[in-house]
Amino acid sequence: AYSSIPNLTGMLLFRKAVKHEMNNVKSEKTNINPNLHIPTTLIKNYRLSDLALLVYGELLGLYNSTKNNKKKPCFIGDKALAQRLNRSISSIQKAISKLKNRGLITSKQKPNFKGRNITVPPLNAKKFLLIPVTIVRNHDLSIGAMLLYGSLYSRQKKLVKINADKHQEDAPLIISVTKSKLAYELKKSPR
Q: What's the whole-model pTM score?
């Protein structure tokens, strides 16, 4: 079942979040990746909830944030993950269960530890939806608005790279996309 793209109220909050995110952009020289990376294949080929997509992006970021590019399991509790994504613990547990059932993550409860040992097997994904962490941490946005922002933000990043490759860094960034195209990409109704 498709849900609709956020309505006018959602769009106003979306604009507020964009302004907030632009004011909080981190330096690219930091070791912290400022974006969640959600493989577009998850949106296209798996029937996952929007929250499961965000949980996967968060776990992928935690899993890939190891030293010397050696990927080790991440350890995080449901409560900490719920706080990071501004969602309830039960919602996080359901999303993790869906991801496990689809074979997208493995998760084991560690004895005497209030967290999970999570491994994120590699997907052969080449395209990602990028959602800035500052947007994900925004309490005012729905998950649908976050995914919509991620789609537009990913397009903007692509245009910046194309302009840099052409040595046209000062060229205006114009993102032209139809509501139908966004809806199709995000598996939503264009309403």
A: 0.74
Q: Is the dihedral of CA 15, 87, 58, 38 positive or negative?
A: negative
Supply 189's token pair. Answer: 């109704």
pLDDT in tens, the chain (191 residues): 445 555 545 455 555 555 444 444 433 333 456 888 999 989 888 889 999 999 999 998 887 755 545 566 777 888 889 998 989 999 999 999 999 999 999 888 767 667 777 888 878 888 899 999 889 888 888 888 899 999 999 998 888 888 888 888 888 888 888 888 888 888 888 77
Beta carbons of 74 and 85 less than 8 angstroms apart: no
- Is 159:172 a contact under the CB 8 Å cutoff? no
Task: Please name which of 106, 100, 95 lies closest in space to residue 73, comparing C-alpha atoms.
Answer: 106
